[in-house]
């Protein structure tokens, strides 16, 4: 499937949420004084660092890497394997000095499954791998069969939370989904975030839980 046109549209949208203070270049969006910017490959380390801060208390992630040292060493590798292709597609977005970031995968693009499996083999205790692999298998079962946008990771630096950055990042991408008439899909690994996604039109498809792994909620949003 050729998705180049949709990716270009995703990168170029400059829709205004509130008021435009000045004309903006095609790679960013103005929302009052908040701009959503598109990250390049050179921005990868900054966005990964923000994700590491944002997910430091995430139940599912800390099940995988409960120790501080292992979390700091291996979670950045997880971000790259799970959502890193967003940088190549031009669909990684951030706000300000990377106070918040979102990694979207366009239709036809998936996480790097080979890198993920290799990472888990190296970094997750053997007794936990079977559970983890079962979780990811069920996640795959919930993915829509039709073309869709996938949000592997979205995160806000903890000291920047409660400022609406997550909503701004979601709204920025979901307008593109609506314009293309495509659904958006994600898995929420933190129950506290489900109301945010529901406010943006996502609906829970069920609950994924295996063994003692924290519940994961797959969610789908139909285009408006």
Uncertain runs? 1-31
Distance between the termini: 23 Å
The general outline is: globular
Provide the succession of SSEs: HEEHHHHEEHHEHEHEE
Mean pLDDT: 88
Would you kindly provide a written description of the structure presented here, covering whatever features stand out?
There is one protein chain. This protein is an alpha+beta fold. It has a single domain (4-13, 24-183), classed as Aminopeptidase (3-Layer(aba) Sandwich), CATH 3.40.630. It has helices at residues 4-12, 44-54, 59-64, 68-83, 85-89, 113-123, 126-142, 165-180, 194-199; strands at residues 28-31, 34-38, 92-95, 100-105, 149-156, 184-188, 203-204, 217-221.
Helix and strand topology:
Blueprint: H1 4-12, E1 28-31, E2 34-38, H2 44-54, H3 59-64, H4 68-83, H5 85-89, E3 92-95, E4 100-105, H6 113-123, H7 126-142, E5 149-156, H8 165-180, E6 184-188, H9 194-199, E7 203-204, E8 217-221
Helix pairs in contact: 2-4, 4-6
């Amino acid at each position: 499937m050729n998705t180049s046109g949709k990716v270009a549209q995703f990168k170029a949208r400059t829709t205004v949420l509130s008021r435009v203070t000045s004309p903006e270049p095609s790679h960013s969006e103005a929302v009052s004084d908040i701009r959503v910017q598109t990250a390049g490959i050179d921005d990868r380390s900054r966005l990964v660092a923000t994700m590491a801060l944002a997910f430091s208390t995430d139940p599912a992630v800390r099940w995988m890497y409960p120790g501080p040292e292992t979390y700091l060493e291996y979670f950045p590798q997880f971000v790259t394997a799970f959502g890193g292709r967003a940088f190549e597609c031009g669909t990684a977005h951030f706000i300000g000095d990377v106070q918040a970031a979102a990694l979207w995968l366009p239709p036809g693009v998936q996480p790097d499954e080979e890198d993920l499996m290799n990472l888990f083999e190296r970094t997750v205790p053997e007794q936990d791998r079977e559970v983890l692999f079962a979780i990811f298998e069920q996640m795959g079962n919930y993915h829509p069969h039709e073309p869709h946008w996938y949000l592997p990771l979205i995160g806000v630096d903890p000291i920047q939370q409660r400022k609406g950055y997550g909503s701004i990042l979601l709204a920025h991408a979901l307008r593109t989904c609506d314009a293309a008439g495509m659904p958006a899909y994600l898995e929420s690994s933190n129950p506290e975030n489900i109301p945010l996604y529901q406010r943006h039109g996502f609906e829970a498809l069920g609950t994924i839980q295996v063994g003692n792994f924290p519940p994961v909620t797959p969610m789908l949003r139909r285009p408006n």
